[in-house]
Amino acid sequence: MKVVETCAEMAALCREVDRPLGLVPTMGALHDGHLSLVQQARADNSTLAASIFVNPTQFGPHEDFARYPRSLERDLESLEAEGTDLVFVPPPHEVYPEGFDTWIEPGAVAEGMEGAARPGHFRGVATVVAKLFTITRPDRAYFGQKDGQQVAVIRKMNEDLNLGAEVVTMPTIREPDGLALSSRNAYLSPEEREAAPAVYRALCAAEDVWRRGERDAGRIQRAAHNILGRETLIGAVDYVGIVDADTMRPLATTHEGRPVMIAAAVQLGTVRLIDNVVLG
Ligand code: PAF
């Protein structure tokens, strides 16, 4: 496994390797969710590349950039064990050199939910992913459904800008009690960890109401809010969104034949948890 720090060397290596090339972009602190992407990418491609870069531009000024978990040595060991060929680990000045001033601004797909709660977040995500795609020119790139709106933003950018990668979405990996795996789960206190599966329970309650025939978004949302409201440690519910799963457009009623995403974001202590389920 080759560990590469510069954009120029990564681009040169990616031009030479056997194709297809699969890319797994990450911010490190790898867990089994990330490893499921790596394993799929390994199975699908002749060359497997991953990136580890805690991207400063997708964090707001009061967010957790400084304390975001970092475990480079362990991450590299995990990637090597999974048969990764190339790992791109650029320092921040490599990605954002002095004077960097060009951004990808996603449109309506990035407006609601995470985009509304975290202004500028998707601009940072889209810009860094566009750079990673440009440097590595992947045939396939792998992302987790856990960040459902992120996947929609990246798919739209990939299509609109003809970046030419196949964007592969992998299912959310969960703890046995339903909590979606996330690097940020490491911040939860034992009591918060016990309360955290309420988010998935709330999504399942909403899904259940929908499966029983309810199509009114307000009533589906209420089923989720009822569960979240019972968990006293959950401080604020940022949103329970009922959106078109491709466009992220909010829906008043869920239409037959179109996939629907129910997404939620809550504050649990100092941790913001997000999760979603896709119906239909
Ligand atoms: O999902 C993540 O880890 C990040 O948002 C990504 C896609 C690697 C961009 O920094």
What does this protein look like?
38% of the residues lie in helices and 20% in strands. The protein contains ten helices and nine strands. Helix 7 (148-160) links the parallel strand 5 (140-144) and strand 6. The longest helix is centred in the middle third of the chain and has 16 residues, at 121-136. The protein starts with a strand and ends with a strand. The mean pLDDT is 97. Pantoate binds next to strand 2 and helix 6.
Which tags fit this structure?
single chain; 280 residues; alpha/beta; 10 helices; 20% strand; binds pantoate
Ions and ligands? pantoate
- Terminal Cα span: 40 Å
Q: How many whole angstroms does the radius of gyration measure? A: 19 Å
- Give start-end ranges of low-pLDDT stretches: none
Summed over residues and divided by their number, the pLDDT gives a mean of 97
Largest sheet: 6 strands, parallel
The number of strands is 9
Count of DSSP H/I helices = 10
Helix content: 25-40%
Order of helices and strands: EHEHEHEHHHEHEHHHEEE
